[in-house]
Amino acid sequence: MIATASKRLFLFLGFFFTSLPGIAFADRDSVVVDCALGQIIQDTLERKTDRPLTVFIRGLCTEPVTITRDDVTLEGDGATIAAAVTIDAARRAEIAGLTISNPAGDGITVTNGGSATIRDSHIDDNAGYGIFVRNDSFAIVNRNTMLRNGIVNSSNSDASGIAVSLGSMVRALQNQIGENLNTGIEVFDNATYRSEGDVVAMRASTPAGRSAVDTYRAAYVDLRGVTVNGRVFLDQQAQLQVRNLPGSPSTLTGNIAVSVLSFLRLRTGVNAGASTLSCQTSTFSVCVCDAVAICPAAP
């Protein structure tokens, strides 16, 4: 009788606690890796487990990291990875609260159908691209800095803050992108970039022909509530749309060039008064402005 009552109580308590909102049993593995103690991030990533994994990183880590399994989070409170981080075909990866500064190449690469959230991190001073999303991949990129990429080692003259290519897509929010060797935002080869609240700037000493935003070869860029200080360039069937957000207007202060079968639309209220527009209708480009004065008058 006592055993039966105990069993009922156990079953009741189990049901009660699992039904309460906000209470959950551990559903992922969590590991601390302290690089100052000689611990290796990659060793942790290669452990056999079917559960999602969070790796809390401490110290300065100099090893390249490759994520090839789904549901991995790399998280740090100011920790640094001074090497490449690659997300290769892995889904739902997350990079949070880290500094990524690779002196020999790109910072973070998402490739081969991978997907990632990159947030609250500093992806600065890499020798190549800060972030490169390519080969049919997807990334959410929120509240990061992407600064001075390509400056520390100028062997990669194409180094940009963020690049998106080959059918990939990025959704971005409130990033600071500036002082990169080549371009702030570079989107090409059927890729898509949508930004809300990004601030993009070029270096004061940027050579002629470089851009703050560069989109080409059938790529699409949608900028909302952004500030762009520098040249904007569209080429080879590219499309760019700039619009405001409620309480957050878009401001463009650099010249805009639209070439070769490309399309530009500046929506009502966009502040482009400091810009000039070159819309090359001879190459079948189209520029549409909703009450923005820099567009040429209709013929």
Low-confidence stretches: 1-25
Assign the structural class, choosing from mainly alpha, mainly beta, alpha/beta, alpha+beta, or little secondary structure. mainly beta
Tell me the helix content.
Answer: under 10%
Q: What is the averaged pLDDT score?
A: 89
Number of helices: 2
Strand order of the largest sheet: 1-2-5-8-11-14-17-20-23-26-29-31
- Major beta sheet, specifics? 12 strands, parallel
* Strands, total number: 31
Rg value: 23 Å
Q: Beta fraction of the residues?
A: 35-45%
Shape: elongated
What does the model show?
- The N and C termini lie far apart (94 Å).
- Helix content is 8%, strand content 39%.
- The protein is elongated.
- With 299 residues, the chain is mainly beta.
- A twelve-stranded parallel beta sheet has the order 1-2-5-8-11-14-17-20-23-26-29-31.
- Mean pLDDT is 89; it is low at 1-25.
- Helix 2 (41-45) links the parallel strand 1 (29-34) and strand 2.
